[in-house]
Design a protein that fits this description.
Elements: E1 5-9, E2 13-16, E3 21-30, E4 36-45, E5 55-57, E6 62-65, E7 70-78, E8 86-96, E9 99-104, E10 108-113, H1 125-144, E11 147-149, H2 158-167, E12 171-172, E13 177-179, E14 189-193, E15 199-201, E16 205-211, E17 216-218, H3 226-236, E18 243-250, E19 259-263, E20 269-271, E21 276-284, H4 290-294, E22 300-301, H5 302-308, H6 312-317
Amino acid sequence: MPAAFTVTTATNTVTLGSDRHGEATFVVTNVSGRPMQGRALLEWQPRATDRSDWAAVQGEAERVFPIAGTQQYTVKFTLPPTAPEGQHILRLDMQDVSLPDDVVQGQSVTLQVASPVPRGKFPWWVLAVAAVVLLGGVGAFLLLGRDATVQNVAGLSLEKARAVVTGAGLTVADPLKTENDDTVPQSVVIRSEPGEGSKLKKGSAVTLVLSNGPSRHPMNFVGKDGTDALKELVQWGLKPENILLSKRWSTNNEPVGTVLSTTPPQGQDVTRNDTVTLAISRGPCRSTVLVLCLRDPIRLPYLELQRSGVSLNEMIRQP
């Protein structure tokens, strides 16, 4: 059975400082072709039951995934001082809630763990050094200012966009935002909020907006009224010039104006840039020759129908 999810991460290695804190971001996409309820699972490699408190998913672990939908999971690491130095490997897996045995193994990140700061006699000389550094910092602040400029991140991958934002003295807000976009590929940054050129205090958070790819709409019009189907397609955003109409006699006594078939077929998804054909019923076929009943006349662009001012029902009844 094909995997229901894909799981990627912007970085394969997370270095934890002496405080043993850090985070990693995973991007999960529903590739099953159907809406799903997915649950994130954290697995240490090799498995270990004594590390359950070392990592946690921020927000809900169980989320709704539309068809081709993407969710971002941020995992926070908080390792105790007793955690061994060196490398520890964590993997984020995805489970189909409706099929608990269907678990997709995701991508792993390796934690580089440094030694904890030893506790001992407080070095009072540190206060003197800190005072000098503080005074120097105040002077630099007055000389250099406190503003940072939001840089252009449109069209970058998440990893590169993070580097651009942090390089400008800002931080990336958590969680990220995602939107459908007909021109920007999935998992690529559409824009930042606030936008390029905005002035912020250094250290302020910038929200990155990631693309979920083109918005998709299911072809579910067979048996519906043709006028209602046209309204739904146009309101959703399909261009009128991408809609074609044909009229056909019904072989199953479907009423006049009913959608008999579609191209692409029923159940398939389309984007706003796809071309759609609706075959509309002219009423029950009276001919005894089946070929005449199924004959599909030349397709008429819906845009021409709009321009001519002829209604759908008028078009159907024309010879």
